[in-house]
TrEMBL record:
Superkingdom of the source species: Bacteria
Keywords: 4Fe-4S, Iron, Iron-sulfur, Lyase, Magnesium, Metal-binding, Queuosine biosynthesis, S-adenosyl-L-methionine
EC number(s) recorded for this UniProt protein: 4.3.99.3
The gene coding this protein: queE
Matching Pfam families: Radical_SAM
Subunit structure: Homodimer.
GO terms of biological process kind: tRNA queuosine(34) biosynthetic process
Protein name from the UniProt record: 7-carboxy-7-deazaguanine synthase
Enzyme class: lyase
Chain's role: Catalyzes the complex heterocyclic radical-mediated conversion of 6-carboxy-5,6,7,8-tetrahydropterin (CPH4) to 7-carboxy-7-deazaguanine (CDG), a step common to the biosynthetic pathways of all 7-deazapurine-containing compounds.
């Protein structure tokens, strides 16, 4: 695995690796280093990292198509391939051992992440790895042994993906059984709750590890949804997740 490389999101020639505060899910507030993979097997219409997959020449639709200046992305500008040793050196340069593997869909690069995690753990066994995944990809055994936490954001109909793409039984059954998995659903309207409950029933998801998070790429959009969603969480006994990084820094990359 010595020559493993990671395909990462790229802006102005720099791989998207940054030190911030976890803004979503059960570890919200924890200082964390984020490593953002390029490539995704889904194409959510409200995706806030569309520069990891919405390439020129692809047919995918995005809510941003409504903006006259929105353009699909040039893959060669927005994807960079970096040796795992280089990624490890950048991550190890931050004084922080919580590392979030995100994307895009990080599990499309299972083997290379294993090499990265092994390298970091060899330097410091205190590393703690969280994975932000869309829940469609089955992790390998080797990957699973190295990971501490899965933040599984299974996509609902509101994402605009065909059901056969976004709902993969084998992967969901794996995460449902894993005691490292938390389930974070992106909620756009109250109607989405029926689908969440269908998923909980179908896969026997642990109800004490479910979070509902408002959909929104701006503070204004989040503000419109967080009050009714918080009420709904209280009523049905689910955890609420905000998007703290948007509240703090807005719709910016690298924070
Ligand atoms: N601060 C911060 N928290 C996050 N939690 C999940 C993120 C993601 O994009 O996967 C994210 C992100 O991009 N920034
Ligand atoms: S699964 Fe995540 S990265 Fe992929 S399109 Fe949806 S929101 Fe974006
Ligand atoms: Mg994000």
């Amino acid at each position: 695995m010595a020559d493993a490389t990671l395909k990462l999101a790229c802006l102005n020639g720099q791989a998207e690796i940054f030190h911030s505060i976890q803004g979503e899910g059960v570890s919200t507030g924890c200082p964390s280093v984020f490593v953002r993979a390029s490539l995704c097997n889904l194409h959510c219409i409200w995706c806030d990292t569309d520069y990891t997959w919405n390439w020129e020449g692809t047919p995918w639709q995005h809510e941003n198509d409504a903006y006259p200046n929105y353009r699909k992305f040039k893959r060669e500008e927005y994807l960079t391939e970096l040796p795992v040793e280089d990624v490890a050196a950048i991550v190890a340069g931050y004084p922080c051992q919580r590392v979030i593997l995100t994307g895009g869909e990080p599990l499309l690069q299972d083997q290379a992440w294993q090499a990265l995690m092994q390298r970091l753990l060899a330097e410091n066994p205190a590393y703690y790895f969280e994975v932000e995944t869309n829940g469609t990809q089955l992790p390998s055994e080797g990957f699973d042994q190295l990971v501490h936490q899965y933040n599984v954001s299974a996509k609902l109909a509101n994402s605009g993906n065909a059901k056969e793409l976004r709902r993969r039984g084998e992967a969901m059954r794996f995460f449902a059984r894993s005691n490292k998995a938390w389930f974070k659903f992106v909620i756009a309207s109250e109607d989405d709750l029926a689908e969440v409950e269908e998923l909980i029933a179908e896969y026997a998801l642990p109800t004490d590890r479910i979070l509902l998070m408002p959909e929104g790429r701006s503070e204004e959009a989040l503000q419109q949804r967080r009050l009714w969603l918080a009420d709904l969480c209280r009523g049905r006994n689910y955890r609420f997740s905000d998007r703290l990084h948007i509240q703090l820094w807005g719709a910016k990359r690298g924070v």
